[in-house]
Amino acid sequence: MQSFGFPGFDSYSHQGFRETHSQGFTDQSFFEPAPLLEQPGQSYAENLELPLEHLEDCPLARIERYIANWMAEESLSQATSDHPSQSSSSLIAQASSSQAVRNARVYQIMLVAHELVLEGRKATQRDIWYRLQHTTMFGSSTDVNNAIRDAANALELAREDLNIICSSRGALAGQLLLQSGPQHAWIDCTSQTYAIPGDCSALSSFSFQTTACCIVIVEKDAIFQRLAEDHFFDMVPSILLTAKGMPDMATRAAAHAICSAFPHLPVVSIVDWNPSGATIAGVYKWGCNHNHLHGARFALPHLQWFGLRSSMLEYAPEDSFLPMSSRDLALVRNLRLGQMQHEPSWLDELDMMESSGVKAEIEALYSVTGLQGFSVMLADCLLSFLAYDAL
């Protein structure tokens, strides 16, 4: 099993590890109980009474092997050093390479994950940041999030296998009935916006019903709220979804679950007419590059870039546009080298931005339609788009 540059964890087994090293973070009220485990102290595999070979490869066993290996390697390093360190913090102070810092951060995340899985509890990434921000090795929430990603990659697991869940920003509205579990009431998303849960694994118990003819993914919360308030989903029977910007894992998981439940429905995106908007549409379509193991896990390969398109801005006044920045131009070049090179119509939009030297946000349509006509225009354009696509 590959360890991706971190201390190896597949060759070392530490008997009695659980009894010796299960006391790391003791404030259990800080973490949310995980309903999947019937008894604290059991791993998922143990709770399900799986065969021994499965127990040896369950998340808890992988975490324990990693921690045991890390400790063994550090003990060896200290034994050969004239100035052995006494703690992870002193290791950071003496570290001369960024890899050493990265490894120590991952080790701390492994300790947190070990407690979570062992005790049958869950925590969000934000919870963990608040817990670790007083330490010297984590300078920002980004450091924590990167270490969580590295830990999951090192173990070849998804972060929810470590009982670490996302702080979701996502929301749903439109022609969708959803039930979060067999004993739960059905929720009508035409009458209320539904906040997407941060626990990706919880979506496996969801059930969906719809009369929609398409799924619309919206970049911005303000546009999502505008469309929901105008009952856009009645003009074009549709399911609306937003992550309020760059999609988090939980929102991507929800989009994937809905698209999988209704594979016959076309999926379209409404994003800014700029390189960042194209990037966001691309993350939904192909996944993210920074997670090489699970980046494409919730990809939506059939997603189409419906808007904003240059053709929709034909009558927009000049002051509706913004100049392309050097960052925008660099992003265009990078996008052309990725998956987008296989989407001619997407490349056409990037070429138009680059050649014109301008970009526009979705709100630029207000200058053409006014506030009242915004949703009507988008609905007309979407109906034409879907009709053309069906030919």
UniProtKB/TrEMBL annotation:
Keywords per UniProt: DNA-binding, Isomerase, Magnesium, Metal-binding, Topoisomerase
EC number(s) reported in the record: 5.6.2.2
Enzyme class: isomerase
Annotated ranges, domain Spo11/DNA topoisomerase VI subunit A N-terminal: 104-164
Reactions mediated catalytically: ATP-dependent breakage, passage and rejoining of double-stranded DNA
Statement: the UniProt record of this protein carries the keyword Transmembrane helix: no
GO molecular function: ATP binding; DNA binding; DNA topoisomerase type II (double strand cut, ATP-hydrolyzing) activity; metal ion binding
Boundaries of every Topoisomerase 6 subunit A/Spo11 TOPRIM domain copy: 215-368
UniProt GO BP: meiotic DNA double-strand break formation; meiotic DNA double-strand break processing; reciprocal meiotic recombination
Family: Belongs to the TOP6A family.
Protein's name in the database: DNA topoisomerase (ATP-hydrolyzing)
